[in-house]
Write a structure and sequence with these properties.
With 218 residues, the protein is α/β, with parallel strands linked by helices. The protein is globular and about 45 Å long. The chain contains eight helices and seven strands, in the order H-H-H-E-H-E-H-E-H-E-H-E-H-E-E. A seven-stranded mixed beta sheet has the order 3-2-1-4-5-7-6, with helices on both faces.
Length: 218
Amino acid sequence: MPSDADRDAALTLFPLPSETVRRLDIYAALLRKWQKTINLVSASTLPQLWTRHIADSLQVQAAVPEAKVWADLGSGGGFPGLVTAIRLAETPGARVHLIESDQRKCAFLREVSRETSAPAVIHNSRIEDIVNHIGDSIEAVSARALAPLPTLIAYAEKWLADGAVGVFLKGQWAEDEVKALSVAGRYRIIAKSSVTAPVSRVLLVFDEAAPRTAARRG
């Protein structure tokens, strides 16, 4: 079970309004409950739920604070997309599209969304089947522990071309994945150090030919 020290450490990294913390507490409690029957996170990481998963996910929204409308690829247990939705719960016009093919995980995401009043829209679908059916103008696309960077960019290509920013949490092989990109010069990639794991990176991906948007400032 996650410790108070782990929770405190996460909230030291990301000081949050009390209402946001209350929503995240609900999320954490529901995840522990559902984890008994569905593998939402690795069991070995539960004692570090707040630092390993919640704080790690909080840095995604913090990287592109101007973005209100997100698409989260392969949302799983909600990291980072549901954390982003909770962080934006009191932001007018915010929506986070959570794309997840596992029906049971979608049921979990819906319950957390209801209980926290997070502005999440859950799509029980494969990523490639839903991209062209989301009507919102996506401002940022996120993913965590889903696929190699070239695959993520291929999934998000339509949204990136329209001006969205890709925000992808990657591990120690991030630089190798950047080098593996086959479309030389099309994308600009900024690698930021993760605040939760020194060897990890937050990769910001921009399509250089895309129109400028509010989310692309900086």
